[in-house]
Amino acid sequence: MMHLLICILINYLLVMVAMAFFTLLERKVLGYIQIRKGPNKVSLMGLPQPFADVIKLFTKEVSFPSSSNLYPFIFSPMMGLALALLFWSLYPYSSPLFFPMYGALLFLCISSLNVYATLIAGWASNSKYALLGAIRSIAQTISYEVSMALILLSALIILLSFNLILMTSSQWSSISLLLPPLFMIWFITTLAETNRTPFDLSEGESELVSGFNVEFSAGSFALIFMAEYTNILTMSLFTSVFFFGMIPLGIFTDIPLVLKTMFFAFLFIWVRGTLPRMRYDKLMNLAWKSFLPLSLSMMILSTSLIIII
């Protein structure tokens, strides 16, 4: 039991380190996209920049709005980061310590709880701007959760398993090649699920004075920031697991999975450096009038394929 606990803690620690350097990668890539240098002043080529940011944020004075609901205000960023880290208990290791049999269902359960962290953060701030940002973010998340669940069901119908470890160890074909529209809708949905450009309306500075997190600062803001970037790596990982086949290579199965996860994380940055923010009404129309009917059609098609085969 103690051995398992230590391994889980090491897993979470390594995820936090990966998230820290992913923020550095994003700043570097966005810098070169905009024909400028990224962070390069801290030590060697700016490599310790994430650690400098962490020290700065967590040593600043934490301020609380006088009219805020204090305990939910403190709890919501912690909840967001805890849920983001909980996803990584499902990582499909080639030689795991424990086998979550229904990992895909647990993924859906955890992702649906992320809405509550945003809701509590906006409500507990007791600010009109924060509450408006939280409501918009919840409406956006719910609209995409429906289509995301249907897309995932379509993939699971083809994979015939809920076990992520079995998916990575015995999946020879790629669903992205079998049903390319399904993969495209999934990737766009993950952009919206993680509040990334062009769907970063819950944190739209020009519209909402930074949205639901406007009253957070110092360490509490850092926790929200860390949760968002951890979720990007999480969605990149599950995109690789669900939609891209994995050739079983024994102990080397982890290597292609890590490379594919890094590739999809890079796509998140590329999209941010390329596309402008979408208008809110067009976003909701895209979710309810385009993605929902299309994801339903894909689920019917995937069911038909399994029956025919």
TrEMBL record:
Q: What is its main location?
A: membrane
Membrane topology note: Multi-pass membrane protein
Q: Name one GO cellular component term.
A: mitochondrial inner membrane
Q: Which UniProt keywords apply?
A: Membrane, Mitochondrion, NAD, Transmembrane, Transmembrane helix, Ubiquinone
Q: InterPro entries under this entry?
A: NADH_UbQ_OxRdtase_su1/FPO, NADH_UbQ_OxRdtase_su1_CS
What biological-process terms (Gene Ontology) are attached? Answer: aerobic respiration
A Gene Ontology molecular-function term?
Answer: NADH dehydrogenase (ubiquinone) activity
Q: Which residues cross the membrane?
A: 6-25, 70-91, 97-125, 146-166, 172-192, 232-251, 257-275, 287-308
Q: Can you state which reaction this protein catalyses?
A: a ubiquinone + NADH + 5 H(+)(in) = a ubiquinol + NAD(+) + 4 H(+)(out)
EC number(s)? 7.1.1.2
Its annotated compartments are: Membrane; Mitochondrion inner membrane
The entry assigns this protein to a family as follows:
Belongs to the complex I subunit 1 family.
The record, for PANTHER family, names:
NADH DEHYDROGENASE SUBUNIT 1, NADH-UBIQUINONE OXIDOREDUCTASE CHAIN 1
Q: What is this protein called?
A: NADH-ubiquinone oxidoreductase chain 1
What organism does the record attribute this protein to?
Ridgeia piscesae (Tubeworm)
